[in-house]
Fold:
Amino acid sequence: MLSKPPANDLSTFGIYAPKGAVARLLDLTRGASASWAGKRRAFFLRSMAMKAMKGKPLDVETLGARMRLYPYNNLCEKRILFTPQYFDLAERELLQSRLTPDLVFVDIGANVGGYSLFVAASAGARARILAIEPQPDIFERLVYNIRQNPFAMIKAIDCAVADHAGEITLFIDSENRGETSMRIINSDAVGERIRVQAKALTAIIDEEGFERVDIMKLDVEGAEDLILEPFFRDAPESLWPKLLFVEFVPERWAIDLPALLTGHGYRQVLRTPQKAVYERA
Structure:
C-alpha cells in the first residue's frame, strides 16, 4: 500500500484506460456476485489489480459517469472503481426513487464525486447539484471528474462545512482520505492535519440562492452533528431537506442526532451499516 496518495494527473481522459491484466481483473471484480464468496473473490482480485497498476490511476465509466480514480489511500475511490455494484446499493436505490428533473441536491463531503455524478447522470440536466469537498487534492480530483461529463450540472465548492465561518483544522487519515474529519477519529490522523476555510451550511445555501433543498447527503466522518444542529436552528423550514442521508456514527457525535432529526419531523426510512436515511413529510 502506498504511504502517500499519488499526485493528481490532470491530463486527457482515456490515457489511463484499463488494459491487459488490469482490464481483465477489473471485469472480474465488477462482475462478482453479492454473496460472501463473491465479495471475498472480488477483494482478492482487487488487491492483485492494484499491485499491477503500480500507483497509476484508471480512467473508467462507473455509476453512470466517467471518472479518473486513484484507489490508493481512499476507500471511496477503491470501491467505485472495482466494485460499484456494492457501493451504497440500498442508498442509491432509495436516492434514485426520489429523483426529479428539477432536483436540488447538496452533497457535503463529496469526495471525488461518486454521489454527485450518480445523481447528475440519473436526474438530468435540469438538476442543481452542489458538491462540497474541503481537501485540496481530493477537490482537484472532484473537479476533474465533473469536467469529464458534459451532462453534469454540478457546482463544486472547496471548503469545509462547520458550525461557524473561518479557518479550521482537518485531521487527515493517511490510510483512507475519506475519513478526514474536523474531529480526531483514530490514532492515524493525529500526526497529519491541514488548515482549510469553513462556512456554516446555512450561509452556503443562502449564497447559492437555493429556495429549497430536496436531498442532502452528509459524509463528514463524525461531524454531522456540528453541521446540522446550527442548520436546523438558523435555516428557515423551507430549506430543510426532504430527504437526508447521514453517515451513521453516533459514537462520534456530541448530541443525540437521531433525536434532533425526529424532533424536526424526520423519520428513519433506511438504515445500513454505513448510513441512515431520514425523510420529512
